[in-house]
Amino acid sequence: MATRPILAYDGGVPLLPSANGPEGALSPPLVAWERLPAAAKQQLDGIKYEHTRVPFSDANVQGTLDSAYSDIFFTGVGPDGTDCGDDTPSQDEIDPDFGEPAPSSTAVPEPEPEATGLSR
């Protein structure tokens, strides 16, 4: 007779199975609406829920995108925020003596233990 409560059994079966381990189960691959088979698109377009909607169906995708957009995201960004200019240095600005950076660690690696002839 058990005297302590059992909180969980570990059967070794993942709750979210994935070929890529637990991280893969939490980030499933994205599927483009255009690449779905016609039968799948028709099914998703035809679903009528009582309190929600399929956000990526033909009827709802533009409304979903519009509701996710906000002008405040772009406050303070100039009209062409993607133009960073050309930062490529000229040949005169390149130091010909520049080499590989020095190692950041000054630690000396530990020596390998010597073999004693004993094996386990």
Automatic annotation (TrEMBL):
Residues 83-98 have a biased composition (Acidic residues). Residues 76-120 are annotated as: Disordered. InterPro entries: NPP1. This is Uncharacterized protein. It comes from Colletotrichum godetiae.
